[in-house]
Amino acid sequence: MTSALTDRATFAGVLAQLVRNRCASGADRTSRTGLQATVPVNERPAVRRGIEGLIDAGVLATHGEDIGFTADGWQFLGYVQKAQGQKAAVERHHDDPAAVERVLGKIEQDERFEPYRDIDEVRTLPARLENYRSLRRDKRMPMGWLVVTTVVVIVAAVVMLFVKR
User: Fold this and answer.
1) Structural domain boundaries of the chain?
2) Handedness of CA 94, 110, 50, 114 (dihedral sign)
3) What CA–CA distance (Å, rounded) separates 13 from 79?
4) Distance between CA 105 and CA 110 in Å, rounded?
5) Per-10-residue mean pLDDT for the chain, 165 residues long?
């Protein structure tokens, strides 16, 4: 089995990694719409189609509103991580080359996995989402400043009340 990923397999692997990142807190599944909401608006249709493709390929399973990995999905994720030179985060499953071949065959036949941009830009999607989340967190006003501002406003209102009398 070759370790080089095609463009379609790379895009599918990026989507699988997005799901894995959302499940990183120890949960076995994540909200499908919550995941899609984190993606930039111009990329959402491709991500939505890709997630639907992963479900049809047997990589992901739906649990109501949530999505999670199947046994074949864990195999595919481990394969993608190894192909990218990462240590597979999926140690609890035994290697099943037949499962990986089944999934790769389905991905190569499915047009939904055709990259919507240059493949190098597609590969950066998880990092771009992480940077976007961290920037949003940094832009929020810290709770301490909110409390201090509220106290100052209340004190100013009380002082103004007594000065007018």
Assistant:
1) 7-123
2) positive
3) 9
4) 9
5) 77 91 77 86 90 94 91 90 77 76 94 88 80 56 74 88 79
